[in-house]
Input
Amino acid sequence: MNVIEFEDVDFNYDNSPALIDINFSIDSNDFVAIVGPNGGGKSTLLKLILAQLSPSKGTISVFGEKNYKSLEKLGYVPQFTTHQHDFPLRLMDMVLQGRLRSNSLFVRHSREDKRRATEILEMLKIGEFKDRFLSELSGGQRQRALIARALIDDPEILILDEPTASVDISVEQDIYDILKNLNKNMTILLVTHDVSFVSKYVNKVFCVNRYLHAHQLDELTDTNAQEVYNKSMKMIKHQCGL
Amino acid sequence: MEFFESLFTVSFLRNALLAGLMASIVCGVTGSLVVVKRISFVSGAIAHSVLGGIGIAYFLNISPTIGAFVFAILAAILISIIKQKKKQNEDTVLSAFWAVGMAIGIIFMSMTPGYNSNLMSYLFGNILLVTNSDLWSLLALVFVIVITVVIFYRQFLAMIFDEEYARLKKIKVNFLYTLLLILISLSVVILIRVVGIILVIALLTLPAAISRLFNRSIGGMMFWASILGLVFTFLGLWLSYLLNLPTGSVIIVLAGISYIIGAFAVKK
Output
């Protein structure tokens, strides 16, 4: 089943084209990496999916619905670099923000939300840090906290913007293992710079540089032939301008 | 000792202390939000533009507090709208509010027959002039501020921590930002009674900034900023009484020195 579909989508920022003639579809069990040079339109693509921008031309359907604006089944994980690292907030309270709605009033969270948050933190192996403040967490723990905040709302599609931009290689591996595991139940879409590293995990690579080239990786990994694989990687990197 | 006896017997000292107490609560609650959201410059613009309202109120011969109140709310709403439009450089707009508000105030004051010396008390505050009816209106404002923060506590935090994400969760970010600026306006109206327009940002931000050095949670920050605000206003009142100095300025100097000491102490 297609969960996200772009048909002939263009997007212009004040008459300068940012994305041109974008066509792709994402299936419910896909794990997609979006790669491409800075300024190539990766973030614009995410914003279109998240309905923060509207296309200049073409149609976008999410869950078969055109103009999907309720966003309830979309989980979003932004880059932590945009947040204040010493913000006076406990890990648990940050995760619980994922359950907030415009009618959530007063100070306390519901017991059910807290139980669910604890469960997710345990799953991501940061349960023991739930009462710590954000300033006391490492980069990898913060990144997982942001993933937890998205997961607490039970999304069907998880969208991540460079989840491993500020963590070291072993943490990167951990995070991809977590995502691989989550991929059993949900669609995953992530922006990254490192196409070689993620190719072990993902089944599709989208190269975005104003135009979008979709590459299917399933067949590649099946062949197991290193040479074929390397050649394809080279071609993908070349097409993506990386 | 004479000072402490006077606190209970002399009504203007007692009123000053009560006004200081209410100002302290505001320092803690609104001040903490201002500090974590990093909008002390916005607060400064609101505070200074208020002089326009005070000037017009003088000219029309109505209560200056009402003039201040109306201008503070107007400034908050306009600044919020301009921020949402994003067409203008926010920095420039705020500076304009800051200066134009004061200019309007001075023009209207100069046009008022029988030029008065009260200008100084609005610029630098005079906590010793707080009347009983002032106290009741301050109390009402404090009540509104605290209740609003309690009701929207989680939403405010979500908006301040990650505006983009809050927006995705359908939280009314623009509404909350405007509401926060209105709370700042109300706080400014209260604090002006204590330290005046010019010194207001210091009292709004310094206790919260010191409190942040020693507290990791926002609740703790609010509580200890209130306590610090109370200590500063009380000591300021006492010292100014002993040394015959302007109270508002003494309060701010105390807060400033404490912040510097605190910042150095925590760094080590």
Remarks:
- The radius of gyration of chain B is 18 Å.
- Chain B touches chain A at residues 36, 150-155, 157-158, 161-162, 164-172, 212, 215-218, 220-221 (CB under 8 Å).
- Residues 173-214 of chain B form the longest helix (42 residues).
- The mean pLDDT of chain B is 91.
